[in-house]
Amino acid sequence: MSPTVGDVTRALDRRFPASHAEPWDRVGLVVGDASREVARVLVSLDADAMAVGEAERVGAELLVTHHPPFLEAPRDPYVTGGASSTVGIGGTSVAVASYHTNLDRSEVGSAALATALGLEPGPLLAGFAEEASLVTAFVPADDVETVLEAMWAAGAGTIGAYERCAFTGEGLGRFEAAGDARPHIGAAGEAGRASEQRVEVLCSRNAVPLVTRACMDAHPYDEPLILASEVTRASRRLGYGRLCTVDPSMEAIALAQRAAERLGGEPRVWGDGKTRCTTVAVVGGSSSSFVDAAVRAGAQALVCGEVRYHSALEAVAGGATVVELGHDVSEWPLVDVLFAEVARATEHTAVEVVRARPSRAWRTLRGSHDGTV
Asked: Which domain holds residue 23?
């Protein structure tokens, strides 16, 4: 039996959790029937009309992209229009799943552009603190494993590449059962003591109801103490971009030339192209918000997708030559990452994974006198 759209996207969701995306982002399965069987998957950068059309032409049931088809749900899903519209959201059977800022922030995503440029990915340019919830319960020592299994099954306990994570610590529970209490230990009206363990697991905020319910159902107490608190989790693996150490003889213009050779396009250079580099900040896509981090890190160059005019001036004033590749050019390496992940998710099946050919949505006018582009 072939895997379904849901089988493939759930594997990708585990690799790039929605909790790692920006709050405004729309990631995961955006359009389509999760129960439909998949024989072919197309992987591309954008979920636009051209990509949906290509998916239909190659017979793909699922289109996996970096950019989502929309960030705000269309008012009428049967009416299309705009740069990022999917032709036939209501008129095509192609499912669309997108992995955007959650892919950008992943360990493989943040390193993709540096790797494509032939640079060794170094430390993160900008870190990320994940919004999460910490669920705490006080459990009799003999029941800890049962409770933990239930909470893990409900979606708790994943920290990066690690699963079934938990903290436990021993302590003494004290109580007095009154009224119509039905104590697990001792009798009503008596002061009780119990050897307990403090159990703590991390989960996404939207999983809290499931995790707390699972804990409650598995817990032997009449009135167990189960707490959930909102937390932020710092990670050494999650964040944007990389800082790369390069040969000090390398000039910024040589980085631009290397990018043109490896990725195509015509990079735009702000500042002194003769600047010699030892540290290069590399980040794809819209990168104005990372200029300050690059300057603070002492980078002599920032290789990126695009920056705003004043951000480019700030970078140059701070000593960093900016090499703009174009938003799409800088992010096509992420398609290679997605292709590899889809191939891994379907490796023991007959599913064919197809990678779209890189393209650019823009052109550079080279000679206004003859219209050459």
From this structure: 5-100+331-355
